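Hi team, as promised in this morning's meeting, here are the two structures we talked about. I've kept the exact order from the run log so nobody has to guess. The first one is mostly here for context; it's the second one we should focus on when we meet again. Sequence first, then the predicted C-alpha cells.
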Amino acid sequence: MKQQPSKLKFKKNHKPSYLNLKLKQQKIFSCSSGIIGIKVLENGYLTYNQIEACRKSIRRIMKKEGSLWIKTFTNISLTKKSVASRMGSGKGMHNKWVSLIRKGQLIFELMVPLEKISLSFKALKSASSKISLKTSIILNKY
C-alpha cells in the first residue's frame, strides 16, 4: 500500500472540516465484495499508520485465509510548521497523510469460507482496536 497519491490536484489542502463530512454522501453502506467488514460509526480521519497496523493485524490472525479489501486511501495531507518558526512565511511542510472517513463508511472487507467466520470476526475485532474511531463489525447476509 502506498502512503501518498502519485498525482495531486493541489499541493497542500485545507484542514478537513467535519461539517463538510456530514453534507457529503456516504460511499459504502454494506459489504459489496466480502462477507464481513468493519464499519465506522462516526466522522473523522484515519492516518496511513493506522490503516497499515489494521492490515497487519488482520493478516497475522488470518494467515493467508481469505481475501482482504481496503476500501479507503490516504489522499489528503496535513501540514505542520516547525516549532521555532515565526508567523507568516506560508504553509508548513507535509506532516502526515490522512483519509477522510464519513459515518457509515466501510473500511475493510474480508471474504472467507463460512467455517472461518469466527476467526475473521476475531481478526476484525483486533483491527478495530487500532482505529481511533468508533467501529462496528457487520456481516453480509446471503
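And here is the second protein, the one for discussion:
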Amino acid sequence: METDLFLIRHGETEWNRKLRYQGQTDIDLNETGFNQARLLSESLENQKITRIYTSDLKRAANTASIIAKPHDLKLNKEKKLREISFGEWEGMNYEEITKEYPKLFKKWRNDPVSVSPPEGETFSEFQERVIYIINRIKDLHTGERVAIVSHGGTIRVYLAHILSMPLIENKKLSIHNTSLSHIKIYDNRAVIKTLNSMCHLKDSIH
C-alpha cells in the first residue's frame, strides 16, 4: 500500500529575512510568507490531500491553515514537529552569537549532533523526536496523502534519516520557505519523489 507524505516548510517570517535564529520562538509569517502560502495552496488545490499535520508554532500553523482551506480539512497540531530549540540563541544572528558565545558556538558548529546551545537541543535529540512523530503520522494514515507543515530543520533531519546520511551533513539539504518535498512510501520503503520544489513561487525564487 502506498502512502504519500508532503513535507512543507512554513512561509517567510521577518526573522528569516533578517537571518535570526528562530528555533521555537513563536514568530508569525510576514506579508511575503502569507503570499507564499497562498501560492502553494493554489498549486495543491487539485491534490487529494486527506490529512494535514502541522507544528503548533504560528508560522507553520498559519501556513497549514491556508493550505487546508480548499480541502476543508482541520489542522492536527503536533508540538513534536517544531523546529530545533536554539535556547538562549533564539532571536540572535550569526554575528551576535559569535561575539557573545565564541567558544561554545565554535564547538557547536563543529559538532551540533552532540553539542547544544544553552538551554537548547542537540541535533541528535531533535532528530529523534522528529523521526518519532513523522513515523507515527505515517503509521496512523497508511494509504493516505498527508501534508506535514513544519520547519526547515525538521524536514532536513527527517530527509537525512531516510537517506541514511550522517546527521551532521543535514545542512547540505536546502529547504526553502513553502518548498514541498514529496515522499512516497511503498510498504515501509521510502522514496523521495520531489525535493525542495518551489515551482509555485515562480519569479519570486531567490
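Starting points for discussion:
The chain has a mean pLDDT of 96.
The beta strands are 2-9, 51-55, 75-78, 145-150, 180-186, 189-197.
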